[in-house]
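Help wanted!
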Amino acid sequence: MAAKSYNIPELDKKLADRRYHLSDTNPEFTQKILKTSRTIANMCYQCGTCTGSCPSAPRSSYRIRLFMRRCVLGLENEALTDPDLWLCTTCYSCTDRCPRDIAPTDVIMAMRNLAFKRDIVPKNFLQTVQLIYTSGHGVPNNDVNRAARTKLGLPADPPTTHSYPEFIKGIQKIMDHYELKENADRILKGD
Amino acid sequence: MAENTEPRIGVFVCHCGTNIAGSLSIDDVVNYAKTLPYVAVADQYQYMCSTPGQKKIDDAIKEHNLTGVVVAACSPRLHEPTFRTATKEGGLNPFRFEMANIREQNSWVHMHGMWDEATQKAKDQVRMAVAKAAKLEDLVPKSVPVEKTAMVVGGGVAGMQAALDLASAGIKTYLIERTPTIGGRMSQLDKTFPTLDCSQCILTPKMVDVGRHPNIEMMTYTEVEKVEGYIGNFDVTLRKKARGVLTPKEATAKGIVGGGCNGCGDCSAVCPVIKPNPFEMGMAPRKAIYIYHAQVMPLIYTVDFDSCVKCGLCVEACGEKKAIDLEMQDEFITVKVGTAVLATGYELFPVENKREWGYKQFDNVINALEFERLICASGPTGGHLVRPSDGKTPMKVGFVLCAGSRDNTGIGKPYCSRFCCMYSLKHAHQIMEKIPGAVAYLFYMDIRSFGKMYEEFYYRIQHEGAKFIRGRVANVLEDKETKNLHVYTEDTLLGRPVDVEVDLLVLAAAVQPNEGANDLRKKFGVSASQDGWMLEAHPKLNPCGTTTAGVFLAGVCQGPKDIPDTVAQAEGAASAASIPIHMGEVELEPYFAMCIDELCAGCGMCVNLCPYSALSLGEKNGRTVMVVTEAKCKGCGTCGGFCPGGAIKMQHFTTPQIAAQIDAFFAGGEQ
Amino acid sequence: MHEYAFFLGCIAPNRYPGCEASAIKTSEKVGIKLLPLKGASCCPAPGAFGSIDLNVWYAMAARNLVLAEEMKKDIALICNGCYKSIWEVNHILKHNDELRDNVNEVLAEIDMQFKGTIDVWHLAELYYDDKICGVQKIKDSVTTPLSGAKVAAHYGCHLMKPKKERHFGDTENPMWFEELIGALGAEPIQYRNKMQCCGAGGGVRGYDIVHALDITNEKLINIQEAGADAITELCPFCQLQFDRGQIEIKEKFGDVYNIPVLHYNELLGLAQGMSPQDLALDLHAIDCTPFLQKVL
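Answered by r_m:
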């Protein structure tokens, strides 16, 4: 940490305070995660089993243990603004092996939910939302597939919302209840 | 004190530091107590159990001519005897004392933001206690003689030490061991931390001492079948399992002069049946007639009748000694003892249940006891550490600490097994010492080196070159070609995932109570704590005792502990178990049932209900009435609650006393 | 005949219709009838939707569950991702009053109510279950044993994990899927780290394709090393990741495997005598011909 501010942006950045202060923490963050994740996220003892189990860890800077630490300490900003948050494949290997019986995967999911509330979310997630809103499917049908289906003796469109579009209205109502489409559109436009 | 005088009760409310005073208003409770009927004086003190606190009781009894004393404080478990003594000092019968537990049952469970409610509850508790105290009666404890004999169950280092201490104090002691030899887990170990003494070298002399002590009757291959009685007078039925082999003493008794087993081993040499030796963790063979190892005590062979084919070759080889009897049957004998020490030890948790570490899936993943046998000079490899897959010397050895300990998944154990950190350090030392160039990798969460010279030992092993990786092992994969193991975790201090390839992996498996320990403790009326280990009377102030008078605990059966702690507890248990024997008699709480002969119809229904066989029918003044064997009665109240004629009085818990408490509660303070 | 509402999801009907066709036809031969679940939608995708707002995920999945409740049929499905959404939300809402009330408040807007009257099954667990079908019955239904083929089993993640919430037992080295493969006459092979994720889940495929593919590549290396002729799985999304992923891996990393990837129902279809055309195997990115030549 710089001994004082030098009013030279370059120096102030280089010498910025690296210590963690209690003011960086938000105890409510831990509580919110506990509620959303429905797991005892506060009980982590940092053994590293999760990272050791993680298929994403060896090929990235993503450390699920670090996110667990941020959860325990309430380091909300640090957790939600870290792009590594989106590298969890939700394989649940950490959850199956966690000796404290915590579900770290669900902690990540809860953090992503909280990040979304701050408009932090990768585009591809929002695109899925838009597709489901309009068609009911995250991966909708296409012409090549329709032709193939017909050849197999299946209806060109499956008996889902594709064949019964009248059900889409209900889906839109559910999503609108949570203002999901609205927010997705807004965030995507902002990009 | 005249019985017809109006009761005069003194109430003393304890702060217990802030344990009670921090959660409720002591002043309010004291002032309230002063308003209660019969209360002659109410007072308070920071620590009622201290000398000044007790003196307040003493003084008040004299000054206010009290007939009863109420202390509102902690659980009676620890301090009821304290305050009874204080009551007695003041000149009252000690059973004129009643306790209100406003700590465990109040302040500790209503700690945050419940000040008014907790205060009100304490008032209720005090009111009820006063109501009972007003009706308490003088009681006189009964004394019973104590059999001058002790029993120790379990022949590991704890049991051996307890038996030696008891015997050396002049008490005849039965040492009961269910396997064919004493020695226990410690005899399986190679070296012991932190001194690196050879385990056998320090243990076998003790085994010999046990074997030849005139006051010890060592009974191996024997199990406790049934326990009856009470402190001072336990009748223990033992099952002497059919060993198929006579000791010289037994042979002599049968008229075979100069016969019996001399441990020559000729029988085993000719036996055609081969089985894994459990002492060697199954890594070496034994015959159907066997000893575990050369240093067994007693040096008597045993027939494993489950695998014996009764070919008779051993009988022939034994010849004139006539030591082998293939038709031998289990025998039952009953012995009377005054006190007993349980020392049933531990076994390793089945670490194969943690599937991610590959135990019993991959050849070169072994547990810590297997490692002990493989590194031990008297083990199956003569102390040359080899890996199971190919017999090669491992150059890189991984150690997985907390393998099933500190585990809340329901598969492992939630507790710390306490000695794995230290023996893993020792293992690391042993491979570096025996195999030049070998490297030890210890995967750990915390190194708990809490004992005397333990942290120094940690320093030493790190200095010797062991690598410490702070991460709990996530999983293990085997290289199908080399049978090497890849150990995955995170080095949490570096913040990097880890893939360490080792030749051999040792799991420091959690420990759990020995198979059968649960049945045994129930026979002795001993409780188990939440974690499954046997429950001590008090974790700090009575760690060797149990809630069953006359039964004591030693060693790991009470909870994981290392050898020094085990031996220390064994000596403590032996000392505690010798006290009633040296006293010659013990006082029993006078809580037993009493038959009011005039009301008893002699129906005998209570006799069958009594769980302690304390009741019987007898003749009195020409009538059949129930008779209580007071020493056997535990005052449980089953008979008293049932008796259709109301003819059974439960001392200290009489119907009027309990009814007064209930009335006082429902009166809600409105008098 | 055991009847189930057949929950299709997205990728099976809209990318690999052979999965859908084979599921219906093969199941019928072992006593399981799959009925259309009209008006069903995306499960919705547990990674994408769950990451954004779990409450919407609960409500959307509940809507699909209610459709089956109205049919009075248990749901059967063929995708691990769908299993996570449909099975897990059913389980959560059955046991969590607060969440169920929240969901029903929303569903009331579309005149629906989650009652918790049905169960959800992966078709593969029904195949394995002796009370419904059992391995022997699968074996008996085989007319063209896939002998000589070495097949690598990919269990996927969301069917069995988290194990504490599920009922499949061991997730470190399970063998039940291998039994189902063996029943077809193929040789199930063991490979290093078989329980590893395909790499696609949690939105990672869309967020960081190279990252996802590198995980897939690790699996493919291990599977190839074990000499697999084909990969089989229980999840069309994993199938997509392994199948199209091999093309993407070739483009991005230059590695070529050409290991065909077939859903277990496609494999079962072949073993029951369905033709590659009946299964639309031509829609697979990796040519299945070498494998077909080996077994047919």
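OP: Thanks! One thing I noticed: Chain A is about 50% helix and 0% strand.
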